[in-house]
Hints:
- Strand 2 and strand 3 (145-151) form a beta hairpin.
- The protein is of the alpha/beta class.
- The two termini are 50 Å apart.
- It has 2 domains: 26-83 and 259-328, no CATH class; 101-256, Nucleotidyltransferase, domain 5 (2-Layer Sandwich), CATH 3.30.420.
- The protein contains 10 helices and 7 strands.
- Helices cover 32% and strands 15% of the residues.
- It has helices at residues 3-13, 33-45, 51-61, 67-74, 157-168, 182-185, 187-196, 212-226, 236-252, 263-267; strands spanning 101-110, 131-139, 145-151, 175-178, 199-202, 306-312, 320-326.
Amino acid sequence: xxxxTIGSWMTRVDEEVPDALVRLPEPVIKFPDFVGYLVRRxxxxxxxxxxxxxxxxxxxxxxxxxPTTVRxxxxxxxxxxxxxxxxxxPRTVTARTPNDLWHFDLTTVPTALGFWSAWGPFALPQVWPxxxxxxxxxxxxxxxxxxxxxxxxxxxxxxxxxFLERLSRSHQPRHLVSDQGSQFTAREFKxxxxxxxxxxxxxxxxxxxxxxxxxxxxxxxxxxxTRRLILVxxxxxxxxxxxxxYFSWYNGHRPHSRLGATPNEVYHHRSLSAKTPxxxxxxxxxxxxxxxxxxxxxxxxxxxxxxxxxRYHGGRRHLPTITLKRAA
Length: 328
């Protein structure tokens, strides 16, 4: 046996072709390459989605992946930003069913003109056409956006009452949490809540987390819809249409990070899409072995190749609806 022969064999040890001299067994837990391609393709098509959101969306579509697996496929090195949570106090109201507790708040949405600076004489007034005033009501139990209203200037207490009056015709909360703005501390608003049997509560001033639910929802609206993703319209009807599309997608297609389901599924007590039988792209994965949560049965036979289908709600590129199909 010559050194040349041994050297030839050593070079063939690392080969990965079918006729390699030495072939290491492929780990059972290793996903096929096309799964990583699906994850990276989804990140390219929807760059605002994080690893947790991608894992939840693919789980609803039938492909169960963990957030760490998605992070490895995306080659992320930046840790996720922690989400503020609601701090509990002895006076905390617990929402056990839908419509037990609503959060309500106002925010400004700048148009293309935007805000120049925060001081005069360069500051622009916070009114149309420089911005819209947006009112949002969120159900605490399901995180569902119950309704919204758009105003050209900062709304009065009577305007807020009119908006909530329209919402309460079909749904009415037991508790309403808001900040201590002039619209909510007015005597007329307090009287309206008493007539409706609504218990009004206020977030603590300067206390972190007291209004975390509604503030996080507003931040999500601005990050996923109105900030750099669309050209904020100047016409009221066009602005209402854009937000209608977004909130329809938010409630029906976007899984909430805390719930692991869409707000509509939790609010209407529907069966969760994430708990339906899943696709299994690993051909040698045992059927009884656990998968990424939630634990579900395998749909068909393991080792199926998948095709990623991305549609856009209302034709808006920032509102994706994701489905997985068997590859032909």
